[in-house]
Amino acid sequence: MSPTRANAAGPAPVVRHNLILVVTCLALGTVVAAMASLNVALPDLARETHATQTQLSWIIDSYSLVFASLLLPAGALGDRFGRRRALLAGLALFGGGSAAAALTTDPSLLIGLRAVLGAGAALVMPATLSTITSTFPRAERTRAVSVWAAVAGASALVGLFATGALLEGWSWRSVFLLNVALALIALIGTLLFVPESAEADQPRLDIGGALLAVAGLVALVYSVIEAPTRGWDSAATLGGIALGLAVLTGFVFFELRQKHPLLDPRLFLNRHFTAGSLSITLQFFVFFGFIFVMMQYLQLVRGDSALMAAVAMLPMAAGLIPLARATPHLVARFGIRGPWTAGLVGVATGMLVLSRLDASSSYWLIAAGLLPLGAGMGLAMTPATTCITDALPNALQNIGSAMNDLSRELGGALGIAVLGSLLSATYRERLDLPGLPHHAAEAARSSLAAAHAMGDPVAGHATTAFVDGMHLALLGAAVAAGLAALAVTVLLRSAAHSPTSAGDDNSRTDAAGSRPSTATAQEQHSYR
To answer: What is the pTM of this model?
Structure first.
């Protein structure tokens, strides 16, 4: 294992560990909440900035896209120059970008500033989990990771609730001012309590791999988000998607040839690592895509206030938080595969129930979908996160942390892009407004908020078209969760029955999903 610059005097005491966990989870919660919190303000944003449905998608997704695209290089920078330094720089960038965003009303500028916040978040998130895995002793690491996973999942819901409360008395700008306050508190806590840690003798940063990863992800997500406007079968959309996939394929081949790759594709030969990465990606594909769709439904279709829309999501938290905390005990008793796959089936079930919503549905139908969704997320998150980090030797924990974060944010960015595009494309296609002047019809098709501003009968037709789009988007989410459950079942079963090899030795876990505490030089080499 590579030596680290950490607490030279020995392990930190329990009180110190708890303070480190509180500060890192606050920093984590701040940047994760920002992915979801602005969704509550979408109707206000649309009315005040006159943003189209596509621009609204970009305002949300520019943050997620930059966040995901920069996670690997940002994590590598933290490992090289210090995770505490990465936390401080990321929190400062996040807070400064939020302060600037509170001062603008131009949707294009807001998209750019959200991208700046994403760059700051990319520095923060991998540093939080890497700090925990490098600071906590193995006996306490599973507990700390379960807290980290619970915060990562629950922060989105807390962000929704906090934003809804703020919007009762202030405008959407207050969301960004809350970001500033939280970033400042986390920054002070980092200065006071978080020790510096970094990997010694880090290799040169893989700049070529980083550029290819960013270019491929941007081309892919941009094409998907713009598809409803340009047309899914247009040359621009198909060409952009093909270009993004081609660049990402080139990234894989480029990394295979590097002595010190940013992300070694051979890691995915480890079935536990692959199962964890795929599960996290699809879980958050569903979660953040759902939040983007649901916040508009609650406020624009049901007519809920921002606060009531946020409160409406509480049944999800009621299932997510306790089960995320109980999952380590369930895994220790029943093994890792059962609770994990049951959680993913719960997510798919919740999406199927919610896909039956219409404009007149009772809130009890919403709650009936949110409970299995939250419980499923709580059950599936901790095993998937632990499987990623414990599948690798200690010397490669930074890679495990970065991959976990990348899977989460990439899943969120793609979920908002794909489910938002399905919603937007169906809405535009189904909104038939005969007799309405062309410019007025185009304005109504730009967003549901714009259509509602025109009053009936346009608002009524627009609501019906929006609900049709929501049905398709949530059915797509259910399919994604079902595929995740199937993939995890197959991968873990294959891993359990595969012949022992150097790679499989590294991937074996105990009943709690934990890997043995030591890794030989030969084992570490097999991952390189």
So the answer is: 0.78
